């Protein structure tokens, strides 16, 4: 199936701060079965690794596939290079949830998602997707890959050092660059980690069909986090893939689609086709 690619750009005002910019695109088949919004993870972006491949496969299957860079991703206007260090430094979970609200609430995007949408998230983006699915009745089906099960991910020693320095250095694996991450996200999680940012609690409230996929050899988010989500989620289906890592075999740039990546993406598309397709499509 062929599809058109339409780009969009949203600006969010944060008072005295620099405006937050969300850039994205939609892959739009001529006759759509439904829509899926895709959330990238920490240090990720919409064009990273397997995200374009997932979006293309969804569009080829007849879904409007909407991808975007969170405003705090650090990605520049070219959508390929990390140029907005300050945006990355001050990014938070609540900011990403507000970004997602802005995307699905935008007039143009609302036309694409119609009366409901599927949600896909990887890693931290999976955690954001879980929080969103628990609070947005517009989410009709959910797929998470290697999703985090908690927003509080730091030891007591990490927190003490972070506060003493005022920042922690995050290494960009692609470039070797070290980017400071402020304490804003830390203080936010301490304040809201048991309420608005409680992923486990959100998981227990999700009632839409949910596919939880995780690699047994995930080196970034332990597979135990998926098992925790699977035990909590009333509507969840847990799939643990042996011998699979955090990126499901995907690299950046994605020069080759591995059998694992092809298989797990096919399962994702089939899941949305089963649980999201409108009657008569």
Write up this protein:
This protein is of the alpha/beta class and 281 residues long. It has one domain: 3-Layer(aba) Sandwich (Rossmann fold), CATH 3.40.50. The protein has ten helices and ten strands. The strands form two sheets. The protein has an eight-stranded mixed β-sheet with strand order 1-2-4-3-5-6-9-10, sandwiched between helices. The protein has a two-stranded antiparallel sheet with strand order 7-8. The protein is globular. The two termini are 14 Å apart. The mean pLDDT is 95.
Short recap of the structure:
The protein has 281 residues and is α/β, with parallel strands linked by helices. The protein contains 10 helices and 10 strands.
The CATH homologous superfamily is named: Alpha/Beta hydrolase fold, catalytic domain
Beta content = 15-25%
Structural class: alpha/beta
Gyration radius from CA atoms, angstroms: 18 Å
Strand arrangement across the biggest beta sheet = 1-2-4-3-5-6-9-10
Number of domains: 1
């Amino acid at each position: 199936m062929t599809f058109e690619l339409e780009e969009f750009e949203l600006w969010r005002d944060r008072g005295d701060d620099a405006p937050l910019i969300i850039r994205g695109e939609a892959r739009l088949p001529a006759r759509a079965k439904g829509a899926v919004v895709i959330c990238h993870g920490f240090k990720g972006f919409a064009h990273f690794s397997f995200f374009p491949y997932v979006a293309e496969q969804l569009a080829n299957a007849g879904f409007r596939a909407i991808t975007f860079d969170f405003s705090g991703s650090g990605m520049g206007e070219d959508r390929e290079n990390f140029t907005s260090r300050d945006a990355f430094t001050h990014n938070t979970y609540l900011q990403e949830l507000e970004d997602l609200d802005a995307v699905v609430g935008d007039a143009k995007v609302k036309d694409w998602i119609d009366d409901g949408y599927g949600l896909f998230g990887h890693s931290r983006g999976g955690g954001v997707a879980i929080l969103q699915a628990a609070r947005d009745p517009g989410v009709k089906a959910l797929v998470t890959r290697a999703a985090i099960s908690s927003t509080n991910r730091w030891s007591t020693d990490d927190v003490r050092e972070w506060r003493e320095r005022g920042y922690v250095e995050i290494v960009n694996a692609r470039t070797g660059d070290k980017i400071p991450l402020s304490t804003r996200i830390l203080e936010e999680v301490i304040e809201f980690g048991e309420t608005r940012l409680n992923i486990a609690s959100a998981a227990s409230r999700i009632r839409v069909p949910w596919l939880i996929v995780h690699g047994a050899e995930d080196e970034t988010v332990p597979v135990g986090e998926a098992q925790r989500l699977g035990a909590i989620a009333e509507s969840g289906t847990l799939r643990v893939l042996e011998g699979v890592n955090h990126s499901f075999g995907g690299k950046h740039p994605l020069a080759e689609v591995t059998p694992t990546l092809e298989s797990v993406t096919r399962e994702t598309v089939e899941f949305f086709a089963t649980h999201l397709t409108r009657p008569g499509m």
